[in-house]
Amino acid sequence: xxxxxxxxxxxxxxxxxxxxxxxxxxxxxxxxxxxxxxxxxxxxxxxxxxxxxxxxxxxxxxxxxxxxxxxxxxxxxxxxxxxxxxxxxxxxxxxxxxxxxxxxxxxxxxxxxxxxxxxxxxxxxxxxxxxxxxxxxxxxxxxxxxxxxxxxxxxxxxxxxxxxxxxxxxxxxxxxxxxxxxxxxxxxxxxxxxxxxxxxxxxxxxxxxxxxxxxxxxxxxxxxxxxxxxxxxxxxxxxxxxxxxxxxxxxxxxxxxxxxxxxxxxxxxxxxxxxxxxxxxxxxxxxxxxxxxxxxxxxxxxxxxxxxxxxxxxxxxxxxxxxxxxxxxxxxxxxxxxxxxxxxxxxxxxxxxxxxxxxxxxxxxxxxxx
Length: 370
What we know:
Blueprint: E1 2-5, E2 14-17, E3 26-31, E4 39-41, E5 45-47, E6 50-57, E7 60-69, E8 72-81, E9 88-90, E10 93-95, E11 99-102, E12 108-111, E13 122-126, E14 129-133, E15 139-143, E16 149-151, E17 159-161, E18 166-171, E19 176-181, E20 187-192, H1 194-197, E21 211-214, E22 217-222, E23 225-230, E24 236-241, H2 245-254, E25 268-271, E26 276-280, E27 285-290, E28 296-302, E29 305-311, E30 314-319, E31 322-327, E32 333-336, E33 345-349, E34 353-357, E35 362-367
Parallel strand pairs: 2-29
Antiparallel strand pairs: 1-2, 3-35, 4-6, 5-6, 6-7, 7-8, 9-10, 10-11, 11-12, 13-14, 14-15, 15-16, 17-18, 18-19, 19-20, 21-22, 22-23, 23-24, 25-26, 26-27, 27-28, 29-30, 30-31, 31-32, 33-34, 34-35
């Protein structure tokens, strides 16, 4: 099972390459810090049987690595971080904004001084280079083996491709999507977003552009447009107005008198390289699927919509306080949880379980073995 995170907007959306079936009996996975109502959790990351969680308690940020054994979590180690950008698992390492740790022991491999980062710092490990990108746009790299620090201009890390060694970021001042080599730091291409932003009501200083990478194609949402850009050359492949009269008409039919605006544009995007799932989680909200020819396969208008994930031939999501599974191509609902819940992240655990997680640290696990 391979995992391709496609983070976009203020939440997370994922595509998992594996078979999936209708969830079976739901189980209680874990719920940390029941007595700490002030704790807020970032999306959990998993890999090689490990579970890594990041939480904020007041202003302190903690990273905890655990293994799920015999029906319970066994905590391996905990450390602190100065960054709010979450973590990633890369091989046998945990990569945070200001440090790299061995996943088994928690041994620190690289540590960045507090004065060299800010809370919005996001970092990536590419070969032996630990590339650190601050929220203010300043960046540098540290060689993991030698410890040598070098200046490198990669800009803000919206998304990156470790296969191609390309970092993507939005230059909000110039209103351009910028691709930078993570090795040389040189700019590979710039894609002008200004024509797409005209009349959209978007303010790039206040919004995060949903971006994902799949099969050397960059998928991004800008205003009412879904745009496909060649990751290597920066050439426009396709532009599609997803928030068209059909979507607006459906919203208006369900909610008469609704005033359309940029708050109804897509916040999340997920793709398996063929179908594309777009999600808006406003009030009201919607979830839709486009096929490879950018034709709308289906659209659901909901009063409240949360994160979604493509898992094999299905879409797992939470809407109107219930977890649901839709058939990917038809959009038919084939499963709905019995109890109400909420969710801001979905991840696959092991080979046969899908997990719904909320920001308070509560995670529900459902069996999807076929």
